[in-house]
C-alpha cells in the first residue's frame, strides 16, 4: 500500500518534471521575443542618453565653444575646463547653494510628511476626510515649476500681495526679499517644499500601511505611548521607504532648476547665492554653447550622483530583504 | 472595588479627552496646510480677473471683472504667442505621453513575461540608469541636436521618451501584480502571435497603470522647462514654460500684471482642473509602483 502511494507520488513528480521541462523549453523558444521587445528601449537609450553621455565626457577635455556664429575648437586642453569650472566659475559654490536650498526644503518636508503619514494612518485618531486632505496636499506637485516660481515672484514682489499685507499690518515699511540671501533661498526652498511634501506623505503613508497592524496593537497593549511606538516600531520598519524617499529627493534636489531660474530671473541673486548647479549648466550651454565647460560640470555632477546613489542604494537593499511584511490593504 | 471602577472611568475619560485634543490639533494642522496649498492658486485665480491697476493697489479676496480684458491683452501680445504655445505644448506633451507609455509597456512586457538570458541584467541596468539625472548627458545631447540641425524641432523633445526608466518601472510593478503567466500561455495555445498577445491582451489588462502614467507623462512634459529652453529658439515654436521665462526680462513692478497672471493661469489651471477630477485615481497611482515596504 505504502509502496503504491510512493510509486504514485513518484509518477506525479515525474509528470511535474516533464511539465517543468516543457515549460523551460517553451520559455527558451520564446526568449527571442524578449530581446525583440527590448530593442526600442535600448536603441533610444543608446542614441539619446548613452552617446550624448560619452560625447559629454569626451568634450569635457576640449576647448569647444561658440562666439556668435563662429565655433572655437575642439582643441584638446586636458583638464583646463575642470580648472576653469572649479576655480573661475565657482562650481562648488553653486553645488553648495543647491545642497543648502535642498536641505532647507527637505528637512521640514520630511518632518511634516512623517507626521502626516502617521496621522493619516493612526487607527485611534481615525481622521475623516483623509482623501480630501491627501488630494489637496498632493496638488502643488503637478503645477508647472517655472510658473510656480513666477507666481511667487509676483506674490512676493515689493508691490505684491504679501508686501501689501505686511505694510498694512505695520510689520515692515518696505518688503524686499531679493536683497536678503536667506529670504531668497528660503522662498525657493519653501516652493520646493510645497511642491513635494504631498508626494512624500503619500509614499511614506504607503510604507506605514505596509506595517503589520498587530505590531501597533501589541505595543499599545504593552503600554507604549505614541512617541515610543513611532520611534521603536514605525521608524525602523519604515526604513526602506524612508531611504527611497531620501534618495529620490536628493537626486531631484541636485536637479533643482526651474524654480530658482524663473524666481531669480536666471541670475541666482543676491550675489549668486541662489544659483544652482543646473542653472550654471544651462547658462554655459545656452549662450556660448560651451561644450567644454558644460561637459566638465556634467562629469562632476555625474560622479557626485553616482556616489550618492551607490551609498544609499547599498543601504536600502541591505535592509529591504529583512523587512518584508504582508501589507495591510489600504 | 469602587476605587478601581473610579480609576478606570477616570482613565477612560482621560483617554477620550486626549483623543479629542489629538483630533482637534490634527485637524487644525491639516486645515492650515490645506490653506497654505490653496492660497497661491487662489491669489492666481483672483488676480487673473483683475486689471493691472487693481492688482497694484493691493490684494482683494473677491473676483474682479477684467478676465476678458486680460485675455485680450495677452492674445494681442506678439512677444507671448499664447495660442501657438498652448498648441505646441499640447502636441509635445500628448505625443510624449503616448510614446513613453507605449514603449515602456513594451519594455515592461519583455522583462516581465520572457525568461531570457540577460533579463535580470537588463532589469538592473534600467534601475541603475533611473538614478542618473537627465541633465548630466544634456551637453552632448545639445551638441548632437545642433550638429544634425534639429534645433527648433520637436523630435529631440519627444523621441527620448521611448526610453523612460521611471515609467517602465511603474508599469512593470503593476504588470507583476495583475498579469498571470497562464494567461499568456493560453493566448499562445489559441495561436496568437507574441505581438498580438501584447497588443490585444497585455495592454488592455494593464490599462489602469497606463492611464496613470499617461497623465504623469503628459504633466511632466507640459511642465518641462530645461530641455525646451536649450532647443527652442523661434518664438512661434515656444512652449508655455518658455513664455513664462520670457517674462523675466521685465520686473513685477513694470509688468501688466493682469496679463502675467492670465498667462500663469493658462500654465497652471488646466492641469489642476483635470487633477481635481481625477485626484483619487492619480493618488492611487503615486504608490502603485513605489518600493514595497
The pLDDT mean of chain B sits at 86
| Percent of sequence in beta strands of chain B | under 5%
Uncertain stretches of 5 or more adjacent residues of chain A: 1-28, 321-330
The CATH class of the largest domain in chain A is: Mainly Alpha
Question: Strand-and-helix sequence of chain A, N→C?
Answer: HEEHHHHHHHHHHH
* Rg calc of chain A: 27 Å
What would the CATH topology of the largest domain in chain B be? MetI-like fold
List low-pLDDT spans of chain B. none
- Largest sheet, strands/sense/barrel of chain A: 2 strands, antiparallel
Structural class of chain B: mainly alpha
Radius of gyration based on Cα positions of chain B? 26 Å
Helical content of chain A (DSSP H or I, runs of 4+): over 70%
Determine and state the CATH class of the largest domain in chain B: Mainly Alpha
Number of domains of chain A: 2
Strand/helix succession of chain B: HHHHHHHHHHHHHH
Strand order of the largest sheet of chain A: 1-2
Number of strands of chain A: 2
In the CATH hierarchy, the third-tier topology of the largest domain in chain A is known as MetI-like fold
> What can be said about the biggest beta sheet of chain B?
none
For the record, the CATH architecture of the largest domain in chain B stands as Orthogonal Bundle
Structure description:
The complex is a heterodimer of chains A (330) and B (293). Chain A is mainly alpha-helical and 330 residues long. Chain A has two domains: 2-59; 80-320, MetI-like fold. Helix content of chain A is 72%, strand content 4%. Chain A has twelve helices and two strands, in the order αββααααααααααα. Chain A has helices at 2-59, 80-88, 91-121, 130-138, 145-155, 161-168, 181-209, 213-221, 226-254, 258-263, 277-286, 291-320, and strands at 62-67, 70-76. Chain A has a two-stranded antiparallel sheet. Chain A is globular and about 75 Å long. Mean pLDDT of chain A is 83; it is low at 1-28 and 321-330. Chain B has two domains: 2-65; 78-249, Orthogonal Bundle (MetI-like fold). By secondary structure, chain B is mostly helical. In chain B, helix 1 packs across helix 14 (257-288) and helix 4 (82-113) runs antiparallel to helix 11 (207-223). The mean pLDDT of chain B is 86. The chains are: A mainly alpha (330), B mainly alpha (293). At the A-B interface, helix 1, helix 3, helix 4, helix 5 and helix 6 of A face helix 1, helix 4, helix 5, helix 6 and helix 11 of B.
